[in-house]
Amino acid sequence: MNALLELTGVTKRFGGLTALDGISLSVAQGTIHAVIGPNGSGKTTLFNIISGIYVPTEGGVRFAGAAVTSKPLHQLAAMGLARTFQNTRLFASMTVRQNVLAARHGRSHPWRFDQENARRVEEIIQFVGLADVADTSAASLPQGQRRLLEIAKALALEPRLVLLDEPHGGLNHAETARLIEVIRQMHARGMTILLIEHEMEVVMTLADRITVLNFGKVLAEGSPADIQRNEAVIEAYLGRADREAELHTQVGRAAEGTGVPLLEVADLTVRYGDIEAVRKVSLNVGTGEFVALLGNNGAGKSSTLKAIARLAQASGSVRFAGHELTKEPTERLVGMGLALVPERRRLFGGLTVIENLKIGAYGRPQSELARLIEEMLELFPNLRRLSASLAFSLSGGEQQMLAIARALMSRPRLLLLDEPSLGLAPLLVEQVFSKLVEVNRQGTAILLVEQNARMALSVAHRGYVLSSGRIVAEGSAAEVARDPRLMGAYLGHGEAAE
Amino acid sequence: MAADASTLTMRTLAILVIATAILCGLLLPRFLSVYYLQVADVTLINILLVLGLNFILGFGGQMSLAQCAFFGIGAYAFTLLQSAGMPVPVAAIGAIALSAAVGMALGWPTLRLKGHYLALCTLAFALIVERLLVNWEGLTNGANGITAIPGIGLAGENDKMLWVLLAVVAGAYLLQVWIANGPLGLRIRALRDDPLAAQAVGVDISRLKIMLFVISAAYGGLAGICYVLLRGYISPDVFSWQSTFSYLAMAVVGGLGSPLGAVLGAILYTFVPELLRFMQEYYFAVFGVMVILVITFLPTGLSGLVLSAFRGLRRREKSYARSDVTHHERAA
Fold it and tell me: Which domain holds residue A308?
């Protein structure tokens, strides 16, 4: 096979964290190759290395037969390697046409605008279907057209290889279909495409070959059909069935709660610009109950959680213990008994474990402080040994425990957790989950947002499955675990998104 | 930045600028006393300095506080080269080239710096240059400065210098607009809008930033030469590091990145206070309030206000024309 892009043993470390570990990957000329993997598996880091934003710690990258390992971004662009960004990076002060024109500077006259170039710019704008809005300001485009312009900018380089970083994120059905069409036409014109994508239906429809990353390593590679059947891939996305059973026998299921409603969310909708991240979501958590909110990356799980904690603007109703939260200022929520453990933990890295805990108790009487800290150190014995260590020096699992402990310092009635398993090895995930069950049994209700569905469902009482911002399945944890829509939300249905 | 030009073609703008310059040259000496004429000359020099600052700060979005230093380097280099016996054009080119070279020497190591750090670094550079001018007495004659510089023999002749300065400023203005509207300007805007995206489409942003530093410094050096020609004497206090903030204020009030803004800002800061002398020192308190108001409510500065008013007017004319058409169509 004729490889246009070839990675050999690419490793990238950020300090002590190994984001990519010996990745070898070969993208054949003229193919559409997709890179998938759970959140935090290293996909974007991989793109940043290929496009020259990062220099790998070890290993090499070859493009079109030349070693390009430490070549800067702009030189690679000139060589015909174009990329788009997950959060579209348009030139906001320019019109659509000027955006494309600016991207063609390497192929145009340096001092004046020549006719030939102007003609090519028009062609590209026509090709992606933005001719109607060519003189509109790029900043005012809706999301679907922003993505198309992002692609037009890449096409302006007349590239041989295009890296597309989640081109479908946040698009509706019509926009997705349009984008798939554009990508197909690019392919038909002989461009090679490397694609990161979370919408599995899109990946399965488009890709000739798929590489699956997990924890910075290549987990599997093959055709879409192979990947959909691959047990290891299913495990990486949903968690392991045997582990689940093991955890279940070890810690059992969480409390059912008293049945008295604690959190009642109705018709919650979250918009970012014109992306609807969450569409009319309704869910309930009872007093003392443990509820899991599941779904693939980009399904709207975190946005739902943020909207409940009033960290994101939303419409709809959020009632907590009978109070309408949407009318309360964010800082009052903690006092009302709601605590959030954010994604990626957000610890105060420069403070010690004890200091982080103290901050969590902000607003509670000084007299309680020592007792609360003692309670947390009993619940999380690992933290006692580390009590004087700075938070950033802790391992991922320890940091997650600290983040949970910090949130518990405010004595919440409801604990909101955003992806506590993110970036943790399976054994640590189990530890975190069994701690959560322990916390729950002491009477704290939990709403857990999680990608690791099997693990979450093995301990939770009830579950909801989100897909593209909507709830597609709900019920008792056992029911949801068996629901085919759960698998569908993660790995696509294998149907073409025509 | 292309705001000035998106509504006008380069040719129309050139005619407009040259006509304005000629009109100023003819009218100002009739209405202004000798003193005010000199103020007008200084205003023109300030326009030149703010135009220069526009490149690095307005176009490039890089906070440079070194404009006063390039002003000084241009002035002293020209003076010393002339006193070494070089003819005026050679001395002028040498002074501009030196300013540009120093600009490159400052731009290169500070490439990695952003925001506050770049501002502090360039401010430190301005301080060093000022200290050098004061303390390197063998070369600069220290705090006493250098007097009786021959220049082009027009020192103190404010009316004749007005023509010289008008010509230089008109040229500098048009060069800036031309750069802003060409492919290079598009690259510069790409850099300012999103440096990473600019790199991703192949723009070498390091080279571009250094280029902006260089052009900016060259404009500063040119302003220094103009100052020597106008006054015939120089001393370090003219190029004090504090003065850099005046240029910054002019640029912001006028509108960052707008050539028209440079003109408006410099006039408002230099010329208008002299007209409003009865307000004495209070004027600058008023100016300070104006800076705050502009930053808060008019991010595009006064030029943005003027241009949007101008554009609004044109749009209304057009829409009248269009409504006429539909009216006729309906009648038919």
Answer: 241-337+412-491
Among A106, A118, A115, which residue's Cα sits nearest to residue A80? Answer: A106
Residues 168-187 of B with CB under 8 A from A: 182-184, 186-187
Q: What is the pLDDT along chain A (498 residues), one digit of tens a residue?
A: 578 999 999 999 887 678 899 999 999 999 999 998 876 788 889 999 999 999 999 999 999 989 998 899 999 999 999 999 988 899 998 999 999 999 987 777 777 788 888 999 999 999 999 999 999 999 888 888 899 999 999 999 999 999 999 888 767 777 888 889 999 999 999 999 999 987 777 888 899 999 999 888 999 999 988 888 888 887 777 666 666 666 667 666 777 767 788 899 999 998 877 778 888 999 999 988 999 999 877 788 888 998 898 888 888 899 998 888 877 777 788 888 888 888 877 888 788 888 888 888 877 777 888 888 888 888 888 888 888 888 877 777 788 888 888 888 888 899 999 888 876 777 778 888 888 888 888 889 999 998 778 888 888 889 999 888 889 889 888 888 888 888 777 766 433 332
Say how far apart CA A233 and CA A240 lie, in whole Å. Answer: 10
User: Is A358 among the domain residues?
Assistant: no
A211 lies in the same domain as A96: yes
What are the counts of helices (DSSP H) followed by strands (DSSP E) for chain B? 16, 0
Overall size of chain A counted in residues? 498
A156 interaction partners in chain B (CB closer than 8 Å)? 201
Contact A432, A420 (CB under 8 A): yes
Identify which of A335, A333, A297 has the alpha carbon closest to the alpha carbon of residue A318: A333
Asked if residue A357 belongs to a domain, the reply is: no
Structural domain count, chain A: 2
Q: What is the DSSP letter of B58?
A: I
Best of A53, A76, A91, A135 to mutate (most B CBs within 10 Å, chain B): A91
Reported ipTM: the value is 0.81
A381 within some domain:
no
A67: CATH: 3.40.50.300
Q: pTM value?
A: 0.75
